[in-house]
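During the second year of the project, the team shifted from modelling isolated chains to modelling whole assemblies. The rationale, set out in the original proposal, was that interfaces cannot be judged from single-chain predictions alone. As a representative example for this report, we include one of the complexes processed in the last quarter. Its constituent sequences, exactly as entered into the pipeline, are reproduced here:
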Amino acid sequence: MKLLIAENYESLSKAAAHIVAQVVTAKPTAVLGLATGSTPIGMYRELARLHREEGVDFSRVTTFNLDEYVGLPPHHPQSYHTFMQEHFFRHVNIPLEQTNIPRGDAPDLQAECRRYEAAIAAAGGIDLQVLGIGGNGHIGFNEPGSDAETTTRIVELAQSTIKANARFFESIDDVPTKAVSMGIKTILAAKRIMLLASGEAKADAVRRMLEGEKTPDVPASLLQLHSDVTVIADKEAAALLSAETKNSGRLV
Ligand SMILES: N[C@@H]1[C@@H](O)[C@H](O)[C@@H](COP(=O)(O)O)O[C@@H]1O
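Output from the structure prediction step:
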């Protein structure tokens, strides 16, 4: 996996946005896999700026988000639908009908998972998948135990994930306990993957992803199975990496 070490969150966000902009400039009909969480917010902000000031064009881009909470309708303030609207879609020129996010309120969730996988395939697959990482090594909502054969499905959130995400809800009891999430197989099918990690709370997960064995116990370590992964970590998130791994990285 290729490693970029960023001086701070701002340079991480700029480096990530630059890669996305390169992909959509080279292929205006690119299919992007997108992530939520606080980590990519700076990247979305920078992409909005690149759209506004440098004319980066999203009009023919298609997007697929990784996941959505089960039970939250799209207009719920904490839904990932709302997150994507607020942080990205409404700031660029992407037509809403070209954006895809699983419906956590679908009456038949199994059918929704099948529909989502089929929609990704029908779009020709994902050109660039953006990922964050959970403190326990999860990607999307693929919690520890998720193996490389998993596809879009209903998942139970780990207690640590519920706790980490409680900050966005009024109380921890309001955090949904389940989500619809692309699987590891879905993620690994992307042509290119870019994972962002910021802050010391991610340092152990980043170390296990890059230096540990490939194991479903650390779902992000399964990214080692892919031939085109770029990890962009800020200094805090890279802090526990060996000197050898750090030296293999490029500073941005
Ligand atoms: N489903 C999302 C993940 O896609 C995200 O990577 C993770 C880390 O979030 P943050 O970037 O806020 O630390 O949180 C959530 O659980």
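The chain has one domain: 11-189+211-216. DSSP finds eight helices and eleven strands in the chain.
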